[in-house]
């Protein structure tokens, strides 16, 4: 053991000094290893620093308080909660029929023990006027300056509000609003004016646009003003920060839970109870979402794969550098052998080279990561949107990362080490050159891996239809191909016969010196294979998604719809559309409202209702028609019947594409038909005649009319629905014109003219504009439009049909560039090594009078040959897995399609899934032709034609 | 080198008598160049005739002392300054012997060369050992340094001369081997050089064997 | 100087080495017998291609004989495996080549300590032995110099120190003066000579008779066989007698 240690020390000493002596090569390898290490350790530092301790988390949510009391909205019914106060459920059993889930607010203050110090913390939203327009902003009423709240908000400038007409704002709000401390601030529809007294930030959420006011200073008066204007008042949620001597233990929390109040207690979070003491976890139907072990394992496997592949790639790139190092110091290794160094000592010396570089790379990478993370902390915090809890260094994790670097260094040096140790001392000393017999075991292992991987992939693709097996098998096979590279490179040698002199020389040289060629080719192979696999797969996916693409609107058409606040901003939106976009036809659309005009379309809020388009019972799809006993109607049918029924006209449901309009009913005039591309003259005529134009046959009853039920009391309707009783509500019937054929109406099922709606006594509310353009709006126009909309501060649903857009383009380009760089890098390294080896020959050539360009030409071809071999092998190795994966996907999709048909899912679509396989010709061409050519030219350009004449021959 | 100049060189250090000159001469040249007293006195009288030395009194024992003159000093300087005359090469017995051995029936030229080489190298070994001793002496004896260095130089001259001979022998051997192989290529001869070489090899083995036994003899 | 009663450090018995086979067969060595005793320096001379270097590589276990035996300190090394040979080179045999003998990454002392360290001795002890060896050969001032800070002659002398560090007492020198000028070569040889006088055994391959003359015995090789050898006989020279009189 000590013997082993002592001789390793000598080896490390030699390796260390050698690394120092050949700084260029050492630096190259060091950088290759250190860069990823820098990235990974910086990531680790950032993630760990951003991760908060429970105490820090509590400081940020509770300030100096002991607990936060929140209404569970269970109407005061007893609840069960988790220790963190993040999830809760009613304590009682509400699942049995007849019992309805508890609902409604409760008075939290009653649950607060006497003698506590309490701060209210209320949240609401308001549209605030900014320098640019309006901004929907969170308003938080909290006495932020109170010592109890200290820690929740961090003051950046000025002070927290002290008077009722003062307000503080987050730095982010000031940025996006263009206001600053000292500015005045108003809200839309609210006559009070506030002065911004200071700015602050929420340490855990730097991106929030929020303003802070004293309790009662903003939200309540604002709600009153809004309500007066007939608009829905903002919802205000209030929680209570409670400070009490002794804090709140888990038992106290449970007692308070009985009153329907959720408690986030510092004591409990810092010292959580055992799971068995948490009744919530003991509840039968409780699913603990956090313990999704499967996803963890999958993520871990993915990370391990990525890290493994990255290490492999680095090893393959760095390996040749160690190989050339070992070769350059052959005489030295021979001397060690002559002085009694056994093979293990020789191996140790070359391996130590990897160890030294690995350790240095780990040190450099981690130290740089520490410095960078520390120096760039403010930028990182801004980027992540939260302040770090502290600068957290986890030595064990950094040590593991360092170990990774050392391992990479060692692995890179392992093959050169074995090769060097196999040479006889005599050959090393005399420096005889010659073809070294390449390792025969590795290609065999590789071949085995290829067979195994292919078998797994084939099994996955043909028998089990699991794409995980296909990609896993492909990866194994791919590694096998990498291991087989030396043998494959040998095959290329045979092709040399037909080449002209210079490339033949280069090819022969590459094949004869597989020790340095193979790792470089393998590195290229791995990068190219990955790129080709991803490109082929992505290109095929693109082709599929292009084929499956369903437009939302006719090409070039757009829609801007607003449902907020009773369409108050619609005129402005229509105006913005007209002004900023190249509009051809603009159709102003409205919607039907039930109850007050300010209501949203879903009947929520006081005095609000909704409507529905009645489907006559005769037209209901038998697969969906409600049954009196509430059972699934589809159960009655066999697979064949279901398949037949999905083709039935009653069962054709509208698929999800198109613009989103409530019930598919739009109040608009004829221009809408034009925008939608409905050129049936009957439709326009019928619309003008006050008829309802229908695009959906089932909604038209046997009398040719469509019924619209106005439901003014949603709760009564819900009750009726639960009991399977007719739904109360006035039904207005409109004579309908069913558009013949089945033109694509883009989500619109019925169109009614405003005049007809008014005549029938329907309340209509402006919804927005649907428009066609004479040309596709430019990016500038779109940006201008977006800016106009942003000024309104409204939630505008904007659609602009631009046809199918390739989303993978950039990723593919980046991948291609990456693979190209790896190829050029690997080929460059191999060429450098070849040059070092061929120095003697080149000198001889020069001495016998070869022109200087011979050196350039030769190095160009050497580089090109390596790149070409890697690219050809990589393309072949990468294309096949992509094909396999696509075939498997095709089979998977086909199967689920058939299954859906059997089940009678009508939205399975009309056509069987089409899973095409597309060859990414552009990427392939770039990789197969441009990259080797570029590599060759680059090498030729960068080679000095003169060459170094004075070099010590023996070293 | 001439005795004349040697004596002048010794006299430059001060007046000396005849037999004293002889002793010093021998000690300087490491006994490699034996002189008799008659030679010394003949040379001295010739030098006196040419005006390069003069008789200059006697010592206590009555030996006549000789001293160098100015013209003697001039002659000595010009001797030091001029290279040794190589116009008349010495006839070397070895060269003549080898020339005779080539083509002589029943004589293996390689054996002739080897036996000469053994002799030469052996001589070199001896010279080298003396030289090693001289080197040690030079390092140790400061006062007699001048004599020791002179002795060292003489030894080295001998070594280099012997080496030249050894190298010349090497050269002769390889040239003769080359000539015999061209002769073989030219046409078959009754005594083929291959056979000669083989015979020489076995002969040498036998010789080596005898040497071994000789060495082990107590 | 040789004392036949002592067991030889190196013994070659009927050593044969054939390179290649068939038409390209070359007999590099044909039945060599040789003993080297402690305190003896043997020079091997011969024309190029006579098998001088092959003899040396086989004696040091860097190459295997086709037939015959090699005994180092009484052990038949032809029976040893690769590991055994490496250990033998660490413990019993030191090599000195024509040039670039030293590992450029190591200082003189570390170079000398290398065989000991490879043998598993602690770095401190190995360094101590190395410094002692260097001091003994008057090379102490070179201890912390790197090879590229030393002259060729200094490098060769350090190499000799390395060849004899620890318990090693067999030096195999292959043209140790080949890359040096005459004067420097002599100083290297005089060191080798003095080490042998102090009890080591040495074989030196050289083609320069002047350096071979430092040996106790000169062996002449021709076509892979020993054709002749000289002994240094004390009674063989007039000069010696004269010198003795002085």
Helix content of chain C: 25-40%
Question: Secondary-structure element sequence of chain C?
Answer: EEEHEEHEHHHEHEHEEH
Please name the fourth-level CATH homologous superfamily of the domain at 10-100 and 165-232 in chain C: P-loop containing nucleotide triphosphate hydrolases
Structural class of chain C, by secondary structure, is alpha/beta
Strand content of chain C: 15-25%
Largest interface: B-C, 44 and 39 residues
**Oligomeric state:** heterotrimer
Give a written overview of the molecule.
The complex is a heterotrimer of chains A (955), B (218) and C (246). Chain A has 955 residues and is of the alpha+beta class. Among the domains of chain A are: 117-242, no CATH class; 484-549 and 808-955, no CATH class; 558-800, no CATH class. In chain A, 51% of the residues lie in helices and 14% in strands. Chain A is globular, with a radius of gyration of 36 Å. Chain B has helices at 3-11, 18-28, 37-49, 70-81, 93-101, 109-140, 145-186, 193-216, and strands spanning 53-58, 64-68. Chain B has a two-stranded antiparallel ribbon. In chain B, strand 1 and strand 2 form a beta hairpin. In chain B, helix 2 (18-28) packs across helix 3 (37-49) and helix 6 (109-140) packs antiparallel against helix 7. Chain B is elongated, with a radius of gyration of 25 Å. Chain C has a domain at 10-100 and 165-232: P-loop containing nucleotide triphosphate hydrolases (Rossmann fold, 3-Layer(aba) Sandwich), CATH 3.40.50.300. Classes of the chains: A alpha+beta (955), B mainly alpha (218), C alpha/beta (246). The B-C interface holds B 27, 30-32, 114-115, 117-118, 120-130, 132-133, 135, 159-160, 162-163, 166-167, 170, 173-174, 197, 200-201, 204-205, 207-208, 211-212, 214-216, 218 and C 2, 4, 30-31, 33, 45, 47, 190, 193, 208-210, 212-218, 220, 222-223, 225-233, 236-237, 239-240, 242-243, 245-246.
């Amino acid at each position: 053991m000590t013997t082993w240690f002592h001789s390793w020390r000598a080896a490390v000493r030699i390796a260390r000094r050698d690394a120092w002596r050949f700084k260029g090569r050492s630096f190259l390898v060091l950088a290759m290893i250190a860069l990823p290490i820098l990235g990974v350790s910086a990531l680790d530092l950032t993630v760990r620093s951003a991760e908060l301790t429970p105490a820090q988390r509590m400081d940020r949510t509770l300030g100096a308080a002991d607990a936060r009391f929140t209404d569970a909205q269970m109407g005061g019914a007893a609840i069960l909660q988790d220790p963190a106060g993040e999830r809760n459920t009613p304590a009682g059993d509400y699942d049995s029929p007849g019992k309805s889930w508890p609902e409604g607010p409760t008075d939290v203050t009653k649950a607060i023990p006497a003698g506590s110090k309490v701060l209210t913390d209320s949240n609401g939203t308001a549209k605030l006027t900014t320098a640019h327009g309006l901004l929907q902003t969170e308003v938080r009423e909290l006495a932020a300056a109170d010592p109890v709240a200290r820690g929740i908000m961090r003051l950046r400038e000025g002070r927290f509000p002290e008077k009722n007409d003062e307000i503080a704002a987050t730095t982010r709000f000031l940025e996006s609003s263009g206001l600053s401390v000292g500015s005045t601030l108003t809200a839309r529809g609210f006559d009070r004016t506030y002065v911004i007294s200071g700015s602050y930030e929420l340490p855990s959420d730097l991106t929030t646009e929020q303003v802070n006011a004293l309790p009662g200073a903003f939200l309540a008066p604002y709600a009153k003003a809004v309500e007066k204007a007939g608009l829905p008042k903002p919802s205000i949620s209030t929680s209570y920060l409670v400070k009490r001597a002794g804090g709140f233990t888990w038992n106290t929390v449970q007692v308070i839970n009985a009153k329907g109040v959720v408690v986030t207690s510092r004591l409990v979070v810092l010292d959580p109870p055992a799971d068995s003491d948490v009744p919530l976890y003991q509840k039968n139907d409780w699913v603990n979402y956090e313990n999704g072990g499967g996803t963890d394992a999958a993520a871990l496997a993915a990370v391990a794969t990525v890290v493994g592949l990255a290490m492999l790639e680095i090893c393959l790139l760095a390996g040749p550098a160690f190989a050339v190092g070992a070769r350059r110091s052959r005489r030295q290794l021979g001397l060690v052998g002559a002085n009694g160094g056994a093979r293990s000592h020789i191996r140790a010396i070359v391996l130590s080279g990897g160890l030294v570089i690995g350790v240095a790379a780990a040190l450099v990478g981690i130290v740089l990561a520490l410095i960078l993370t520390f120096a760039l902390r403010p930028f990182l915090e801004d980027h992540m949107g939260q302040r770090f809890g502290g600068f957290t260094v986890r030595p064990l994790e950094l040590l593991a990362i360092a170990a990774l670097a050392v391992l990479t260094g060692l692995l890179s040096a392992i093959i050169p080490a074995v090769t060097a140790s196999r040479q006889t001392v005599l050959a090393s000393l005399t420096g005889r050159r010659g073809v070294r017999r390449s390792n025969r075991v590795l290609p065999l292992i590789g071949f085995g891996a290829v067979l195994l991987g292919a078998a797994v992939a084939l099994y996955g693709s043909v028998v089990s239809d699991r794409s995980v097996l296909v990609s896993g098998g492909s990866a194994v096979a791919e590694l096998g191909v990498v291991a087989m590279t030396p043998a494959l490179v040998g095959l290329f040698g045979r092709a040399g016969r037909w080449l002209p002199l210079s490339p033949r020389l280069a090819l022969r040289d590459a094949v004869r010196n597989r020790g340095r060629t193979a790792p470089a080719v393998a590195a290229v192979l791995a990068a190219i294979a990955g790129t080709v696999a991803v490109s082929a797969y992505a290109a095929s996916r693109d082709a599929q998604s292009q084929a499956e693409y369903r437009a939302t609107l006719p090409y070039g058409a757009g829609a801007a719809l607003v449902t907020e606040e009773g369409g108050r901003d619609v005129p402005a939106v229509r105006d913005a559309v007209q002004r900023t976009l190249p509009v051809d036809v603009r159709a102003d659309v409205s919607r039907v409202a039930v109850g007050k005009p300010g209501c949203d379309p879903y009947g929520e809020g006081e005095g609000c209702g909704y409507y529905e388009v009645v489907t006559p019972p005769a037209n209901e799809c038998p697969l969906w028609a409600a049954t009196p006993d509430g059972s699934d109607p589809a159960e009655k049918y066999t697979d064949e019947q279901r398949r037949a029924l999905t083709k039935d006209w009653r069962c054709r449901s509208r698929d999800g594409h198109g613009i989103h309009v409530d019930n598919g009913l739009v109040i608009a005039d004829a221009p809408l038909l034009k925008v939608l591309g409905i050129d049936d003259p009957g439709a326009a005529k019928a619309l003008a005649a006050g008829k309802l134009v229908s695009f959906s046959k089932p909604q038209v009853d046997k009398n040719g009319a469509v019924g619209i039920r106005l439901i003014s009391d949603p709760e009564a309707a819900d009750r009726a629905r639960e009991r399977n009783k007719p739904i109360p509500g006035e039904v207005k019937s409109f004579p309908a014109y069913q558009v013949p054929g089945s033109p694509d109406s883009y989500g619109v099922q019925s169109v009614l003219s405003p005049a007809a709606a008014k005549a029938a006594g329907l309340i209509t509310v402006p919804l927005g504009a649907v428009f066609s353009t004479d040309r596709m709006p430019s990016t500038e126009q779109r940006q201008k439009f977006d800016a106009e909309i942003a000024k309104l501060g409204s939630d505008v649903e904007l659609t602009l049909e631009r046809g199918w857009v390739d989303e993978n383009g950039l990723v593919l380009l980046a991948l291609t560039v990456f693979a190209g760089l790896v190829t050029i890098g690997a080929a460059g390294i191999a060429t450098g090594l070849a040059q070092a080896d061929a120095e003697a020959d080149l000198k001889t050539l020069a001495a016998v009078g070869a022109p200087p360009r011979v050196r350039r030409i030769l190095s160009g071809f050497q580089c090109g040959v390596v790149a070409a071999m890697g690219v050809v092998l990589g393309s072949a190795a990468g294309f096949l897995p992509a094909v396999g994966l696509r075939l498997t996907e095709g089979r998977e999709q086909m199967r689920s399609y058939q299954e859906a048909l059997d089940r009678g899912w009508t939205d399975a679509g009309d056509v069987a899934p089409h899973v095409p396989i597309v060859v990414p010709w552009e990427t392939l061409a770039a990789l197969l032709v441009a990259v080797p050519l570029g590599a060759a030219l680059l090498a030729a350009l960068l080679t000095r034609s003169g060459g170094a004449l004075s070099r010590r021959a023996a070293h | 080198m001439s005795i004349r100049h040697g004596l002048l060189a010794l006299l430059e250090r001060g007046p000396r008598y005849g037999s004293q000159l002889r002793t010093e001469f021998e000690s300087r040249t490491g006994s490699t160049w034996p002189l008799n007293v008659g030679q010394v006195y003949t040379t001295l009288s010739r030098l006196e005739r040419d005006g390069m030395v003069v008789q200059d009194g006697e010592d206590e024992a009555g030996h006549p002392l000789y001293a160098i003159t100015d013209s003697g000093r001039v002659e000595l300087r010009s001797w030091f300054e001029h290279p040794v005359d190589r116009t008349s090469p010495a006839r070397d017995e070895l060269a003549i012997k080898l020339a005779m051995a080539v083509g002589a029936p029943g004589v293996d030229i390689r054996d002739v060369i080897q036996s000469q080489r053994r002799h030469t190298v052996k001589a070199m070994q001896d010279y080298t050992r003396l030289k090693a001793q001289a080197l040690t002496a030079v390092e140790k004896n400061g006062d007699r340094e001048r004599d020791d260095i002179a002795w060292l130089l003489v030894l080295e001259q001998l070594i280099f001369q012997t080496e030249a001979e050894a190298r010349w022998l090497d050269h002769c051997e390889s040239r003769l081997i080359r000539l015999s192989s061209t002769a073989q290529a030219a046409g078959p001869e009754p005594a083929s050089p291959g056979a000669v070489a083989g015979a020489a090899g076995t002969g040498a083995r036998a010789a080596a064997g005898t040497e071994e036994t000789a060495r082990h003899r107590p | 100087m040789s004392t036949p009663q002592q067991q030889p450090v190196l013994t070659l018995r009927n050593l044969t080495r054939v390179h290649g086979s068939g038409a390209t067969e070359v007999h590099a060595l044909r039945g060599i017998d040789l003993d080297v005793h402690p305190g003896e320096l043997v020079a091997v001379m011969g024309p190029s291609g006579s098998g001088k270097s092959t003899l040396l590589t086989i004696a040091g276990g860097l190459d295997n004989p086709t037939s015959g035996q090699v005994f180092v300190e009484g052990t038949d090394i032809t029976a040893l495996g690769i590991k055994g040979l490496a250990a033998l080179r660490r413990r019993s045999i030191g090599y000195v080549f024509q040039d670039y003998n030293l590992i450029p990454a190591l200082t003189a002392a570390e170079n000398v300590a290398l065989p000991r360290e490879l043998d598993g001795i602690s770095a401190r002890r190995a360094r101590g032995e190395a410094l002692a060896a260097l001091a003994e050969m008057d090379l102490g001032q070179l201890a912390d110099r790197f090879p590229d800070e030393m002259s060729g002659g200094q490098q060769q002398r350090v190499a000799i120190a390395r060849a004899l560090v620890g318990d090693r007492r067999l030096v195999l020198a292959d043209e140790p003066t080949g890359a040096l000028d005459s004067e420097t070569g002599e100083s290297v040889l005089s060191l080798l000579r003095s080490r042998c006088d102090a009890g080591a055994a040495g074989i030196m391959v050289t083609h320069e008779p002047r350096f071979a003359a430092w040996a106790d015995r000169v062996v002449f090789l021709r076509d892979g066989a020993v054709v002749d050898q000289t002994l240094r006989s004390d009674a063989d020279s007039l000069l010696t007698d004269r010198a003795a009189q002085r």
